[in-house]
Amino acid sequence: MHVQEWLETVPAVAVYALVGLVIGLESLGIPLPGEIILVSSALLASQHGEIDPVVLGASATAGAIIGDSIGYAIGRKGGRPLLAWLGNKFPKHFSEGHIATAERSFEKWGMWAVFFGRFVALLRIFAGPLAGVLRMPYWKFAIANVLGGILWAGGTTAVIYYVGIVAESWLKRFSWLGLVAAVLVGLTSMLVIKRKAKKAVPAAAAE
C-alpha cells in the first residue's frame, strides 16, 4: 500500500503525530523517510478537509526542531564513540566517508551546515548529533535549528499543499497520474535550495 493510501485510513490526529514522530526521529539521527511522509501528508491535506495544513506544518516543524535538539544533546554527551556506534548500526548512512565529509562541512560552514542540512537527506540525519559531537555553541545551533526547521518543514508543507490544491482537478480525473505530477512539481520547486545545499558539502570537503 502506498504511503498516502495508508495515511487516508488513519484519523487526522494520528497523521499529525506520525509526521512529527517520523521527522523527529530522523532529525535525531535515525534514518527514516521523513520527507516522503511530510510530502504525502501535505498532499493528503490538500485533498481532504479533515487535515489542517497549519497544524500539519506545525507538527512537522516541532518534530524537526525537537528531534534535532535531542540529537544535539546525545551527540554532545556521547562524543565520537557515538559516531562509531552509529557507523556499526547504520553503515550505509554513517560510514567513515560520510562522517568525514559531514564533519568537514560543519567545520567550514558552522551553523549554516545545520540550516542548509535540513534540505539534504544525509545532513538532515547528521546535523543534530554531529553538531553536538563537534561542540558547536548551543546558541548557534539553536538559531540554525529553529530557522531551518521552520523553513524546511513549514515551507515544504505549504508548497506541497498549494500544489495539491492547484492539481486537484488532475487528481480527480487522473488519480495516480495527478498525484505523480503534483509530487514532481512540488519537489521541483525546492530544487534551488537543495542544489545549493548539496554543492556546499563537496565544496567544503574539497577545501
Oligomer: single chain
Low-confidence stretches: none
Tell me the β content.
Answer: under 5%
> What is the terminal separation in angstroms?
45 Å
Order of helices and strands: HHHHHHHHHHH
- Describe the biggest sheet? none
Overview of this protein structure:
With 207 residues, the protein is mainly alpha-helical. 83% of the residues lie in helices and 0% in strands. It is built from 11 helices and no strands. α3 packs antiparallel against α4 (53-89), α4 packs across α7 (121-133) and α6 packs antiparallel against α7 (121-133). The longest helix has 37 residues, at 53-89. The radius of gyration is 17 Å and the shape is elongated. The termini are far apart. The mean pLDDT is 77.
Structural key phrases:
single chain, 207 residues, mainly alpha, 11 helices
Offer a quick outline of the entry.
By secondary structure, this protein is mainly α. The protein has helices at 3-7, 12-28, 34-47, 53-89, 96-109, 111-117, 121-133, 138-166, 168-173, 175-188, 191-206.
Strand and helix map with partners:
Blueprint: H1 3-7, H2 12-28, H3 34-47, H4 53-89, H5 96-109, H6 111-117, H7 121-133, H8 138-166, H9 168-173, H10 175-188, H11 191-206
